[in-house]
Design a protein that fits this description.
single chain, 440 residues, mainly alpha, two-stranded antiparallel sheet, 5 strands, 59% helix
């Protein structure tokens, strides 16, 4: 049976919490009784009862009553007793009424968080005043500030469901800076729970917005983004890029206090030490080596040996195991990971560094002697040398008959650059000549 909405239903919709507009999709039907509601009279009666129960439950903090309404079990007074469209409108009413109540939150989060999340996942296309976004923000703050049960990952997932629109006329419009702030918050929360894949996805989304953010008015936000990006690179063991980002952050003198800048410098040193050996790492080490604040790291707890190790790496000096004890104890769990070859990241990095240091001392060396210096079995020393030769981080050759590793003199970067430019110019001339010849 199709029926017009009676004028008496207006009083039901406005009962108890008049500040909220509960059924925005049916407002015209409410205001104009000549418009027909495609709802049976029994459904309207169910809605009346459900709305009254929700309003009373919110005012009295009757959590069990509210839970029963949104449960898939129970009698007539439950959401399932009405159609899908009415269920969504009922959820929207509950969300708006919850946000409008001055006393219901935040206590309700500790009692019926699952019901609130269920309602947030079953809404119409639009909720007036973006009340669902307001509630998600409140739940996010509750989760990260909970005195006994902080839930960063849960908070991030709640915030990730915010509805964000670029249309200025939309109730869900959010500026580029605010959108970027949301993504950075999500990434920060996932990093706190070591969920690096989700943090990476969130910081990537933040990066897609960064060009639209006014840098002059959002310096602090951009700094948070850069810091979070560096932490994500670090957590994903992309130590080369992380070291560069951390060092750039350590030079933000006008935005961050000196102690925090030193912490960033220390992280840059850590990542530079753990980065794979090669010319790129040597350039990063050179930048950090020239930093006048490097020796100040000796006074920071957990970083007492950072400057000494970094200097020896930059100078291609052999590192001894006893020099690395304090440094290793300062590493985070993801920086202590054991790789496929059975070595930790630090062990492999130190072996590769010492290999390069040996190359600066010898023209050739027996594999057995090399193994003694590196403190690894001869087979491991030979495999490491072969791998470094193949990836270009070491210039040399292995004489397996004699058991010798022969080193070749490293070329200066300027020489390599000049050769690359000359090669490019020759290739460009060849292409130009070929074009001219084909045109004749």
């Amino acid at each position: 049976m199709v029926t017009s909405v009676p004028l008496g239903l207006q009083r039901i919709f406005d009962a108890r919490l008049p500040a909220c507009s509960y059924f925005s999709g049916n407002r015209r039907a409410i205001e104009d009784p000549s418009i027909e509601f495609t709802t049976s009279s029994s459904s309207i009666m169910d809605l009346q009862a459900l709305i009254l129960s929700i309003n009373t439950g919110i005012q009295n903090k009757a959590y069990d009553s509210i839970r029963s309404i949104f449960s898939s079990f129970g009698g007539q007074q439950r959401r399932g007793s009405v159609g899908q469209g009415e269920q969504r409108s009922l959820s929207a009413h509950f969300i708006q009424a919850t946000v409008a109540s001055p006393t219901f939150l935040p206590d309700a989060f500790d009692h019926i968080e699952d019901v609130i999340i269920k309602a947030l996942g079953h809404l119409p296309v639009t909720v007036e005043n973006a009340a669902d976004n307001q509630l998600r923000q409140k739940l996010f703050e509750h989760k990260i500030n909970h005195p006994t049960n902080t839930d960063y990952a849960g908070a991030a997932r709640i915030l990730a469901e915010l509805r964000m629109d670029d249309d200025n006329n939309s109730v869900y419009y959010i500026s580029p800076a605010d959108k970027m702030n949301v993504f950075v918050k999500i990434a920060e929360c996932f990093l706190n729970e070591d969920e690096t894949e989700q943090a990476d996805a969130a910081v990537t989304k933040a990066g897609s917005v960064v060009q639209r953010v006014d840098a002059s008015n959002n310096k602090a936000l951009l700094l948070r983004y850069k810091s979070t990006y560096a932490r994500v690179l670090d957590a994903n063991r992309k130590f080369m890029q992380a070291a560069q980002r951390y060092h750039e952050l350590s030079e933000a003198f006008d935005l961050v206090d000196a102690e925090s800048l030193l912490q960033m410098l220390g992280r840059a040193v850590t990542c530079a030490i753990l980065a794979p050996s090669g010319p790129q790492r040597q350039r990063i080490l050179a930048h950090i080596y020239k930093d006048a604040r490097l020796d100040q790291l000796d006074s920071i707890q957990g970083m007492e040996s950072h400057s000494q190790i970094m200097k020896k790496m930059y100078m291609h000096q052999i590192l001894q195991p006893q020099e690395l004890v304090k440094f290793e104890s300062s590493l985070a769990d993801h920086q202590k990971a054991v790789m496929g070859d059975g070595l930790t990241i630090m062990e492999r990095g130190v072996i590769e560094h010492n290999m390069v240091a040996v190359a600066n001392l010898y023209q050739s060396i027996y594999i057995t002697e090399l193994a003694r210096i590196l403190r690894v079995p001869p087979e491991k020393a030979e495999m490491t040398a072969a791998s470094m030769i193949m990836d270009g981080s070491l210039r040399g050759s292995i004489d397996q008959v004699e058991g010798l590793l022969n080193f070749e003199e490293e070329e200066e970067e300027e020489v390599i650059l000049d050769r690359s430019i000359s090669s490019f110019c020759i290739e460009l001339n060849n292409v130009t000549d070929a074009i001219k010849a084909s045109a004749m």
